[in-house]
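Two folds, back to back.
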Amino acid sequence: MIAYRRAEMLSRDEESTLIASAQAGDVEARNRLIVAHLPFIKMWARQQLTPPWIDRDDLIGIGTLGMMRAIEKYNPLK
């Protein structure tokens, strides 16, 4: 959880470049995108009203998987 605290916000151009690279198979670009969005994923997990037996870390994991899926499916032309 330390990595996301140091992550810098990406500019629109950086994000577009990283998405294109990640869709082409660049794992490092995908990881950088995910780390840059971890604060948003954590904020989303905190806002969810969930039963007490669901751990917040599980929600963060689900959000991260969703981010991976979004990177794969993102189409800048839409």
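---
second:
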Amino acid sequence: MTLDDAEEAMLKLYCERSNLKDGHTVLDVGCGWGSLALYIAKNYTNCRVTGICNSTTQKAYIEEKCRYADWYPIVCFKS
């Protein structure tokens, strides 16, 4: 198993344990580089995710990923 595979498995487990369903609204406080928010956007296309981070660099990274992948359900802003 690669590191990417392990991360994907952990993100899937987070969603399962939180009983996340497509269409839920998610608040990700301290979203960092947005791995969970981006995972949700990719796999739960009807969810709306709001990520809060305190880094303009992290915010820009997440927004770029969203633009590139056409994942408009994610809103990330600097706290």
